[in-house]
Model the fold of this input.
Amino acid sequence: MAAAEIPADQDTRDLYMTFVSRDATQDHPEFEALVATVTIGDIKILNTTNKRPFVGVAETSGVLGEQIKYNVREGIGVHIGSDIIAEGSTFNTKNADVWFDPVNDLVHDTEADGYWLIGKVEEVQDADGMFTLLKRRFAIAGEGT
Done:
């Protein structure tokens, strides 16, 4: 993917960022999209050197070593399917915190060490178990209880 694909408009250029998918065993502190494959719509914590970690939603798919474009805009609605909701978690309260476990790629309804606050519940879970997340721009690290 060429850098020219990222919007050049002054008002939107910082809403999208490109990261390179790396193997978790490599020493690249500037990249934390450390997965073998990324699919459009995947949520990732994107950590860049000397910056706060971004909450990114993949706009493109790719594999190790490829550049992946992520939407890092604040306040976008992201539909969360039941396949990435951790067992026992429910999202039936509007504005409840949504926590992300980057190790297992699952969302949780409770804070824990290693989880990241990625947004709030915008629309509660429906009959199919899906809900809508109002995404943050920057992730906040959770703490153990």
